[in-house]
Amino acid sequence: MNYDNKIRVGITHGDINGVGYEVILKAFEDPTMLEFCTPVIYGSSKAASYHRKTLNLQTAFTTISNISEATHNRLYLIEVSNDDLKVEIGQPSAEAGESALAALERAIKDMKEGSIDVLVTAPINKHTIQNAEFHFPGHTEYLEERLGDGKKSLMILMKDSLRVALVTTHIPITKVASSITKELIKEKAKIFAKTLNSDFGKGRPRIAILSLNPHAGDDGLLGNEEGEIITPAIKELVTEGIQAFGPYPADGFFGSDKYTHFDGILAMYHDQGLAPFKAIAMEEGIDYTAGLPIVRTSPAHGTAYDIAGKGIASAESFRQAIYAGIDIFRTRKSNDQAHQNPLRKQFYDRRDDSDKLKLDEE
Predict the structure, then answer these.
(1) For a Cys staple, 191 with which of 154, 204, 273, 341, CB 3.0–4.6 Å?
(2) Which tens digits make up the pLDDT trace of 340-358?
(3) Which of 220, 249, 284 is the last residue of a domain?
(4) Are residues 101 and 179 in the same domain?
(5) From the DSSP assignment, how many helices (H) and strands (E) are in the chain?
């Protein structure tokens, strides 16, 4: 339940030794951010204060014990860590990993109860967070299990009209080719098409599908996956009503700006899609976990230990993650409301000799 009229944004603090708190506090230095949402950090007041003092930031926050207390135009923080939590800027630690997971667990609890509308996650260290409860390669897979209700997730990196989704995500490059199947490509493309419609308002989205091999396999000379797997998948998607095109060689596709003609791009593996995306949109790009009942976004960068505590981290990606989460939540809600009570379609069934009015209940 939302306790006021603003969209409630839950923010997990991520790794306390990285740039998480810096980008969070910088994002809310501007008080106009509070006009768009009610932000609640799940984290540590000690860590937040440490970073604020180190970076000489003036961002104020109010510590609360329950999200129902977040009712005014201010930045809130729900304590999830012990008072003796140690901050070691720029250094990975098991303690930081435990704190990052505690923030996720508390935020998920509140999201399941409907107390927050959008989840924005600061970067985690995928190694230090691992334990019996978190045995995943990243946020995407973890959230799919915890909040997916059986639905499959889709990782999308986005900035404005540039949206890049992945068929395979956090797996070694040696396993990519064997992991790509016609069924998996179709599954991801269908989630993508549905997401572009329900979350971004694209009526009949155009999706470009990239090849796996250089030069799209060069007619089998450089690989057979295009002819045996990817092209058949595209053809079947088209027959099922999805506007899928390709397969396109990734280098020429991005190098020639062809990507600007599509609503979404489906890449075969992580770096194939994310390397060009980050070259184009690193400062403002965000990560969106699509396909799930909940809305979750995050900045496109990682913990950035090398610049943590130096005051030079840009908050723009984090700020855009908040904006995008709010926009997606609103678009999805509007789309759901529009389809709650659709008007029955009326038509004449020409197969009926009496030409009697029929009602299509579908």
Answers:
(1) 154
(2) 665 554 444 444 444 443 4
(3) 284
(4) no
(5) 11, 14
344, 52 in Cβ contact below 8 A? no
Q: Based on the domain organization, do 76 and 166 belong to the same domain?
A: no
Higher pLDDT, 94 or 342: 94
Distance, CA of 236 to CA of 223 (rounded, Å): 21
This prediction has a pTM of: 0.88
Pair 139, 103: CB distance under 8 Å: no
User: Is there a single domain that holds both residue 7 and residue 61?
Assistant: yes
Provide the token pair at 82.
Answer: 């012990």
Q: Please state, in angstroms and rounded to a whole number, the distance separating the CA atoms of residues 137 and 148.
A: 16
Spatial separation of the C-alpha atoms in residues 206 and 171, rounded to whole Å = 27
Question: Please, where are the H alpha helices in 7-113?
Answer: 20-27, 45-54, 94-112
Whether 263 and 300 map to the same domain: the answer is no
Q: Among 263, 321, 315, which Cα is nearest to 287's?
A: 321
Q: Write out the two tokens for 298.
A: 């995050």
| Same domain, residue pair 143 and 5 | yes
Residues 16 and 70 in one domain: yes
The answer to whether 147 and 294 have CB atoms below 8 angstroms apart is yes
- Report the pLDDT averaged over residues 7-13: 97
Burial readout 64-98 (b: 16 or more C-beta within 10 A, e: otherwise): eeebeebeeeebbbbbbbeeebebebeebbebbbb
Provide φ and ψ at 63, rounded to 5°.
-85, 130
Same domain, 327 and 355: yes
pLDDT tens, residue by residue, 38-68: 999 999 999 999 999 999 999 999 999 999 9
